[in-house]
Amino acid sequence: MHRGVTIFTHxxxxxxxxxxxxxxxxxxxxxxxxRRANGFALFRLFSFTPLHRRVPDPDDPANxxxxxxxxxxxxxxxxxxxxxxxxxTNLASYLRRFELWVLAYQKVCAxxxxxxxPRSSITRSALDDLLALRNAVLDNRFKxxxxxxxxxxxxxxxxxxxxxxxxxxxxxxxxxxxxxxxDKLVQEVLFMILEPIYEARFSQxxxxxxxxxxxxxxLRVIRRSFAGYxxxxxxxxxxxxxxxxxxxxxxxxxRDVRDKKVIDLIxxxxxxxxxxxxxxxxxxxxxxxxxxxxxxVLAEDEPKPDPYWLETFFGFAPEEAEKLxxxxxxxxxxxxxANICLDELDRWMEGKIKEFYRPSKSDVIxxxxxxEAEQGNTSWPEFVPTSGPDKTRKxxxxxxxxxxxxxxxxxxxxxxTLRKQLIEFCDLKYMIKLDNESLPIEHITKGIMFLxxxxxxxxxxxxxxxxxxGGKIISEKGVGTLLSVTASxxxxxxxxxxxxxxxxxxxxxxxxxxxxxxxxxxxxxAQMNKFLSTMVEWYxxxxxxxxAVNFCSYIxxxxxxxxxxxxxKLRSRAKVYKIGARNLSRPLKxxxxxxxxxxxxxxxxxxxxxxxxxxxxxxxxxxxxxTPFPSNWRPDHEKALVEYIRLDDPKTLKEQRSCIGEQGLVxxxxxxxxxxxxxxxxxxxxxxxxLVKTAxxxxxxxxxxxxxxxxENYDPKSNEEEETEExxxxxxx
Length: 733
Hints:
This protein has helices at 2-14, 35-46, 61-64, 69-82, 92-95, 98-113, 124-138, 166-174, 181-199, 215-225, 239-242, 246-253, 260-271, 308-314, 333-356, 412-429, 489-498, 521-538, 545-567, 573-580, 596-604, 636-648, 650-662, 668-695, 700-708, 716-726, and strands at 231-236, 383-385, 394-400, 403-409, 441-443, 448-450, 453-460, 463-464, 472-473, 480-487, 502-503, 509-510. It is of the alpha+beta class. It has 4 domains: 69-195, no CATH class; 204-249 and 269-274 and 304-363 and 381-485, no CATH class; 489-620, no CATH class; 638-677, no CATH class. Strands 3-4-1-5 form a 4-stranded antiparallel β-sheet, sandwiched between helices. It holds the Pfam family Intron_maturas2.
């Protein structure tokens, strides 16, 4: 009603001729209406609602947002996991969904300004520009890599491109620039549409650039499934991540997606050249003296840079996780496209695994015809009992990004044959030339390096312990082998040396961390504690977790001690440890290590509390995580999707009902009917007892006879007939 009054009042003020009755009904000097009549007339006038209501504008962004973007994405995941093998032919309907564009805008803004923007905070002008971008993509008017003309700009981009000078315009057009904001939006929308399609189809053997899978998952799978293999092929296919021919990428994409608009968008992103700054081939510029630089104050909408501890941890990235694909203008689509192309290799290897498998009944593991039975002791999968000469031939495969690891149980000749076939496949499918050096065959006894962890085998002998000092080997023949996954200390030293934390190989000597020279002791200790916490988590599944973390703690503690010695002029690390304690938790400003005023200042909140360094002793480091890893493991989000689809299937309900009936259990509906039946029987028995008692002639035997009638056999079908006759249903309780 209020909306009708507002709209019609606006129309009256704009055009007074639309009033449906004469103007004499208003109060004036020429009429004799009372104030009460005038008020009633005005009420009737402004409560009048026109018969012809305004038709909602189809191009209004507010009318296009019918659902939440997250619910639309969830529905896409459910549909693709319900039918993972179908060919997708119509994705334009999802490109039209304005909710996905709004969700993409929120995600990209979070990366741009460093904070999440709720939908209610998006301005109307931004929604109009976002709608214009969507229409341009649908009408094939969108171009990748625009530099001056945009459909929508970043909220923090305040540049007026129309008033720029020719020199600045030339610099924008000829030098390397960050990806435009509108390109990131289109990439995000395409990613949200394509990711659920291919995540339902990807092999379970790939673990990089996928949600719910990481390097820790790879290490746990290796510990779980690679225990019985003798020969290993470690391959580096990272050349594929540098880029493939456009035709190969599009053909891999069109195996499952046949939508022309999406294919054309991705093809144009791959084909459009990326403008980069020309390399300076002239003389090297002279080094200038470093001047004092003021601390730069960040703007309100500018994201904070990565903290020092996070930069340091990123420096520890293993070789297998260093390279991130970036193809043309695809942006965040590049890792997904790389996985789509490499999925053909995963499928080919899965076929080879089935062909290679030849079970042997005399083998203690993998002796089933299908090869899917549990191996050995499931609670201790890294232990493999000794088998006879006739062993099962088996192979397994895992891929992390562009690096692969193949384990083979069998003779070395089989590994050489597989390597030859793999070289031919990569040459035919990806047009990359591999050789025997890029795919080395190594025995488990030499140690296999993967993700900065070493895979090796230890022989387990039977021992007889009869003294307090040790045991004696009673048999030279081992009872089995144990797969060991240990952190590589050699690689750890290499990474610390690259970050300038130490020098030397045989006796590594910590170097002062001068990056933190101007920071306070409390801030420096807090940064290094965060770094040590991440290192503890990184080596979580290593057998030598305590040793590796203790070495990292020693390097960090020695580096900080040298830093504090130079900063506070204490000359040596020994004096720093004497004043600041082993974990550097005491303030170092006082020479004698005693600051009676520090505790009082700390209580008043005038100084920062100094947290000591963590893991300064071996006993403080947590043990290795040996939690059993299931053979058919899947990420939590995939488990939830599969379970939801299973429960949503009508066949599941029928199976549950039949299972309940076979086990002799009672369904909820039958249980309610039984309660109704017992209630009615009890009422009848109580009425009979009351009648007998009032008659005055009853005995205890009569009571037992009447009560025994309540324990007759219950029949749900007969009860339903009685309820139908009496008009009494269980649903009315």
